[in-house]
């Protein structure tokens, strides 16, 4: 019986302690001045990139040859200097790749695909290979794009505008 009375006394003591908290009502919200400000655009921004049904692969292999990269085209010193100064570079490094004997070079196209050309130095008829494209030791190799559709489109545009060919 003594233990039963002790348990009842302990339970009554706990109820008395909890009673003032229950009588005070619901907890108050935090003062708005204590909360972080809303991000620009509010909270309606997406939290992750949208899901695409057929996402593009992060990188594509465009050229695979069993030769040295130096024989693929001519090394353009002016573009290599602009690449070292970050004025002529790939938008997404190594998105397109050219694989040679021992080297993998990044690829950009003169008509603008994967190319950041701030000084308008690119020729739309060329393909540019970037060796060490993310460093000051960048080397740009220019090779002719032999895509007949592209060449015909450029010729039609030049004829329409009346501009001489490059």
Care to describe what's here?
It is built from 3 helices and 8 strands. With 166 residues, the protein is an alpha+beta fold. The protein has a domain at 62-161. Strand 4 and strand 5 (104-109) form a beta hairpin. The chain starts with a helix and ends in a 5-residue tail after the last helix.
Distance between the termini: 108 Å
Low-confidence regions: none
Indicate the radius of gyration in whole angstroms.
Answer: 33 Å
The protein's oligomeric status is single chain
Instruction: Work out the helicity level.
Output: 25-40%
The main sheet comes to: 6 strands, mixed
Order of helices and strands: HEEHEEEEEEH
Largest beta sheet: what is the strand line-up? 1-4-5-7-8-2
List the keywords.
3 helices, elongated, 6-stranded mixed sheet, single chain, 166 residues, alpha+beta, two-stranded antiparallel ribbon
Task: Please outline what is shown here.
This protein is an alpha+beta fold and 166 residues long. It is built from three helices and eight strands; from the N terminus they run αββαββββββα. The chain has helices at residues 2-23, 77-84, 148-161; strands spanning 60-64, 74-75, 88-90, 96-99, 104-109, 115-117, 126-131, 139-144.
């Amino acid at each position: 019986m003594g233990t039963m009375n002790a348990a009842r006394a302990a339970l009554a003591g706990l109820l008395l302690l909890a009673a003032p908290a229950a009588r005070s009502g619901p907890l108050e919200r935090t003062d708005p001045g204590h909360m972080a400000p809303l991000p620009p655009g509010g909270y309606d921004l997406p939290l992750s990139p949208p899901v695409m049904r057929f996402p593009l692969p992060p990188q594509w292999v465009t050229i695979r040859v069993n030769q040295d990269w130096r024989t693929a085209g001519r090394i353009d010193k002016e573009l290599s200097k602009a690449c070292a100064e970050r004025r002529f570079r790939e938008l997404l490094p190594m998105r397109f790749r050219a694989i040679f004997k021992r080297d993998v070079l990044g690829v950009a196209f003169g008509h603008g695909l994967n190319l950041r050309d701030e000084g308008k130095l690119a020729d739309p008829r060329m393909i540019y290979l970037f060796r060490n494209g993310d460093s000051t030791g960048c080397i740009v190799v220019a090779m002719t794009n032999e895509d007949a559709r592209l060449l015909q489109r450029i010729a039609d545009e030049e004829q329409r505008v009346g501009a001489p060919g490059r």
